[in-house]
């Protein structure tokens, strides 16, 4: 019955998406010259992970903001390329300068920028974007206006290492819109969102939404296309069908054999390792309200050892993934930061005997059912993944047998994207296959700050705030202090000492179980559009779901 229902839903979704595309002149080769506002080319159809029904939400402070909110409508001060380490590119900021002691940062703002409602961007807007209740940072002492085009941050302590968080990951919003809202997080910003980005909202339904070129955009060279349509569909299999029907132009998704899509030459393909580590999130902290066997560190450690990642990569990811680092550094790029004696990569093979030993040393006894238990609590938990994420769904099923061999009971389940988002935000889960967002700079500091510090989490049942992404509810005072120490220096030796403390703790505590860096597979319409990222010109990380990176790609591509 479940298979029949899913098959029916898939067929209905394909039909609905195709109908929506046909009626809005989106992406089809037959529509060349008909789409967009200026009639200069087709509307570009993109799938970024949204599922139907789409709920209008363009609030950059909301955990359920729609793709395109970040980057296409709202922008940070500078663009940091995740695909290639380099200097940040000016956006709403033109230049910045640190004081010698790292306690102040001066930013020159771009002149003559307008919001898409024709009002000017001001220094007050930028100051508000760093000081309002939704996003204010505890390490920022003050943000003040120096002149109409200059602001200055002052900090309680040196904050060199927080450069990316400040300049590349904080989005600028219009004070004249957001300051009148009672709750900046629940505000959906559903109609006519006012931003400075290259696109603005045109229309939205429960199946898709369209953005069009912002004619007031500060860069006259971008965007080069007139209109983009974001589709809401149920997963990669439906996206494959739309690609084959010439009804989809851009998506990053898992496809076992890319040649099934690229064979006729319409679609280009770019495969690269993602900077975002695929990980199993665990609700790890019983003191913060997490419940279940996974709150015991020994269970998490044993489960990680029981996993045969090589088998999962081969059977679920078809060999497209590569092993992650237990220290959550990016393999290759960040190895200089790894503490001596810690492994550079997680093991590919399972260590069943090692997993059993961890449990037995922690007082667990093997039951007649083949599952370890302690004090009436079985080593049993649920691993969830989002339905339609076929690689993650397959990985979850493989984990069931792998864990059982080590005396651990895993129940694999699938949840909707909305359920997944809610579970991560409120902490009401045991384990979820997900990913952490890596950084575009060769330094793991921001990842440690965002996912492992106490300030980045809340107790279970209370939703995480806009700047909080510690889904594991992990809390370790030693880690907090080491992150603070790393933020206050540019000295690599001091930072490495701090990172050693962090890495030793997270390798032992495994609040997130590291798995892979996925092989990011991006497909794009090279027949009707040009200017996509390539191996020779990686001007942005090409993943369609990666916010600002994808928005920058969309602003750079042009009609053929």
Task: Return Rg in Å.
Answer: 24 Å
Average of pLDDT = 92
Q: Which stretches are poorly predicted, pLDDT < 50 over at least 5 residues?
A: 1-39
Strand content: 15-25%
Largest sheet: 11 strands, mixed
Number of alpha- plus pi-helical segments: 15
Helix content: 25-40%
The general outline is globular
Question: How many strands?
Answer: 22
How far the N terminus sits from the C terminus, by CA atoms, comes to 46 Å
Class derived from helix and strand content: alpha+beta
Describe this structure in words.
By secondary structure, the protein is an alpha+beta fold. The protein contains 15 helices and 22 strands. The protein has helices at 2-23, 123-131, 163-167, 175-178, 236-244, 259-262, 297-306, 309-315, 352-361, 390-404, 417-426, 445-452, 477-487, 492-509, 547-556; strands spanning 44-47, 78-79, 89-90, 93-98, 104-109, 140-147, 150-155, 199-204, 208-213, 227-231, 250-252, 267-282, 322-323, 365-366, 372-374, 377-378, 380-386, 409-415, 431-435, 512-525, 529-530, 558-559. The chain is globular, with a radius of gyration of 24 Å. It starts with a helix and ends with a strand.
């Amino acid at each position: 019955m479940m298979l029949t229902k899913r098959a029916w839903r898939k067929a209905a979704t394909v039909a609905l998406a195709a109908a929506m595309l046909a009626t809005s002149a989106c992406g089809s080769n037959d529509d060349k010259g008909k789409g967009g506002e200026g009639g200069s080319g087709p509307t570009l159809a993109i799938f970024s992970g949204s599922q139907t029904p789409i709920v209008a939400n363009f609030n950059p402070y909301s955990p359920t903001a729609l793709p395109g909110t970040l980057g296409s409508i709202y922008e940070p001060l500078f663009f940091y390329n995740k695909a290639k380490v380099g200097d940040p590119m000016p956006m709403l900021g033109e230049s910045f300068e640190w004081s010698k002691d790292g306690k102040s940062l001066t930013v020159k703002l771009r002149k003559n920028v307008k919001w898409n409602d024709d009002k000017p961007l001001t220094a007050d807007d930028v100051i508000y974007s760093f000081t309002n209740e939704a996003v204010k940072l505890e390490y920022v002492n003050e943000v003040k206006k120096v002149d109409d085009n200059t602001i200055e941050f002052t900090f309680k302590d040196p904050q060199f290492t927080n450069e990316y968080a400040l300049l590349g990951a904080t989005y600028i919003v219009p004070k004249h819109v957001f300051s009148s809202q009672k709750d900046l997080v629940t505000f959906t910003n559903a109609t006519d969102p006012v931003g400075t980005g290259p696109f603005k909202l045109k229309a939205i339904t429960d199946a898709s939404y369209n953005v069009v070129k912002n004619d007031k955009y500060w860069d006259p060279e971008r965007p080069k296309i007139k209109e983009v349509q974001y589709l809401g569909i149920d997963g990669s299999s439906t996206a494959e069908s739309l690609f084959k029907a010439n009804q989809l132009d851009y998506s990053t998704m898992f496809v076992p054999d890319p040649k099934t899509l690229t064979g006729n030459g319409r679609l280009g393909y770019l495969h690269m390792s993602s900077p975002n580590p695929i990980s199993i999130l665990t609700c790890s902290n019983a003191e913060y309200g997490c419940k279940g066997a996974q709150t015991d560190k020994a269970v998490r450690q044993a489960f990680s050892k029981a996993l045969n990642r090589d088998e999962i990569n081969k059977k679920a990811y078809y060999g497209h993934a590569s092993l992650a680092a237990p220290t959550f550094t990016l393999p290759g790029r960040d190895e200089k930061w790894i503490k001596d004696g810690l492994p550079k990569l997680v093991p590919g093979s399972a260590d069943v005997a090692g997993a059993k030993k961890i449990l037995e040393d922690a007082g667990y006894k093997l039951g007649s059912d083949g599952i370890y238990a302690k004090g009436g609590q079985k080593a049993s938990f649920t691993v969830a993944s989002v339905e339609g994420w076929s690689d993650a769904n397959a990985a979850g099923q493989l984990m069931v047998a792998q864990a059982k061999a080590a005396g651990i009971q895993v129940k694999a389940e699938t949840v909707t994207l909305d359920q997944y988002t809610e579970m991560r935000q409120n902490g009401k889960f045991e384990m979820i296959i997900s990913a952490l967002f890596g950084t575009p700079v060769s330094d793991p500091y921001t990842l440690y700050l965002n996912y492992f510090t106490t300030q980045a989490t809340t107790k279970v049942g209370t939703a995480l705030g806009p700047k909080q992404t510690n889904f594991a509810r992990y809390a370790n005072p030693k880690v907090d202090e080491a992150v603070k120490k790393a933020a206050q220096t540019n000295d690599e030796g001091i930072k490495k000492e701090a990172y050693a403390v962090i890495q030793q703790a997270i390798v032992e505590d495994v609040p997130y179980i590291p798995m892979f860096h996925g092989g990011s597979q991006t497909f794009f319409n090279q027949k009707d559009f040009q200017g996509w990222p390539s191996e020779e010109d990686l001007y942005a990380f090409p993943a369609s779901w990666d916010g600002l990176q994808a928005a920058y790609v969309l602003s750079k591509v042009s009609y053929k």
